[in-house]
């Protein structure tokens, strides 16, 4: 079983992955937990480049191909081998992040990005994608609180304002893309407590396991 988590910053993706992994372990499974960018050795290097992007002159298409390279390597070296061994894989972000951030966010054609993803994913599409949905103002507040607690100071007003507009576009993109793929996506309201949100996540995973 391959489950991916998507959503804007501050939706609690990593918290939900931790809760789901614990729940699966209690049922005798050994889930593999991973993330994008950065789920492989090459991906670790690409993540460093991608997340320091603000200070470089990297172009939109170059950024896109780095995310796709990260994904192709991630699938080939970690995800597919784990799935072939019968393991459950939980990924914090996957192919839909490219469609939404580079497509709905940066203006590239989502259908073209889906075709590129097909090459990178090489058949290992998720069985289930949980979209954690939240009002960007709430998500951003949570992300800022987390960053400040971690010693990262990103609270300038200008940054926040730009971020908010961008995140509104990303949120709407996710919802539009999820509506186009109702078989694989489940949209979960991420506005509640971690346990409340996990109740919904668990329900969708249990339905997949039973199905
Ligand atoms: P990360 O710190 O993992 O973000 P978050 O805490 O929001 O999950 O950083 C990943 C960033 O990369 C995030 O802003 C989304 C972006 N991204 C893309 O633009 N395209 C992609 O294909 C992927 C996987 C991520």
Describe, in plain words, how this protein is organized in 3D.
By secondary structure, this protein is α/β, with parallel strands linked by helices. The chain has one domain (2-210): P-loop containing nucleotide triphosphate hydrolases (Rossmann fold). Helix content is 60%, strand content 11%. It has helices spanning 13-25, 41-51, 60-84, 95-105, 110-121, 136-149, 157-180, 194-210, and strands at 2-6, 32-35, 89-92, 128-133, 185-189. A five-stranded parallel sheet has the order 2-3-1-4-5, with helices on both faces. The longest helix has 25 residues, at 60-84. The mean pLDDT is 92. The site of thymidine-5'-diphosphate (TYD) has 10 residues, from helix 4.
- Overall tally of domains: 1
Instruction: Indicate the mean pLDDT.
Output: 92
Distance between the termini: 12 Å
DSSP summary: helix tally:
8
Q: How is the main sheet built?
A: 5 strands, parallel
* CATH C-level name: Alpha Beta
Q: Please give the radius of gyration in angstroms.
A: 17 Å
* Name given to the CATH architecture: 3-Layer(aba) Sandwich
Which regions contain 5 or more consecutive residues with pLDDT less than 50? none
Main structural class: alpha/beta
Descriptors for this entry?
11% strand, five-stranded parallel sheet, Rossmann fold, alpha/beta, 211 residues, binds thymidine-5'-diphosphate, 8 helices, 5 strands, single chain
List the topology elements:
Elements: E1 2-6, H1 13-25, E2 32-35, H2 41-51, H3 60-84, E3 89-92, H4 95-105, H5 110-121, E4 128-133, H6 136-149, H7 157-180, E5 185-189, H8 194-210
Parallel strand pairs: 1-3, 1-4, 2-3, 4-5
């Amino acid at each position: 079983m391959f489950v991916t988590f998507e959503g804007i910053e501050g939706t609690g993706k990593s918290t939900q992955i931790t809760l789901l992994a614990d729940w699966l372990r209690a049922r005798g499974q050994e889930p593999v937990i991973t993330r994008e960018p950065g789920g492989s050795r090459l991906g670790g290097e690409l993540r460093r480049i991608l997340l320091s992007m603000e200070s470089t002159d990297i172009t939109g298409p170059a950024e896109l191909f780095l995310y796709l390279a990260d994904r192709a390597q991630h699938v080939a070296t970690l995800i597919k081998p784990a799935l072939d061994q019968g393991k459950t894989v939980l990924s914090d972000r996957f192919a839909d992040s490219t469609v939404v951030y580079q497509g709905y966010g940066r203006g590239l054609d989502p259908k073209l990005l889906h075709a590129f993803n097909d090459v990178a994913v090489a058949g290992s599409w998720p069985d289930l994608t949980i979209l954690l949905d939240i009002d960007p103002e709430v998500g951003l507040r949570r992300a800022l609180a987390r960053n400040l607690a971690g010693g990262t100071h990103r609270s300038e007003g200008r940054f926040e304002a730009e971020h908010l507009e961008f995140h509104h576009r990303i949120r709407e993109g996710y919802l539009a893309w999820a509506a186009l793929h109702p078989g694989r996506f489940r949209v979960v309201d991420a506005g509640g407590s971690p346990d409340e949100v996990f109740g919904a996540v668990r329900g969708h995973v249990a339905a997949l396991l039973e199905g």
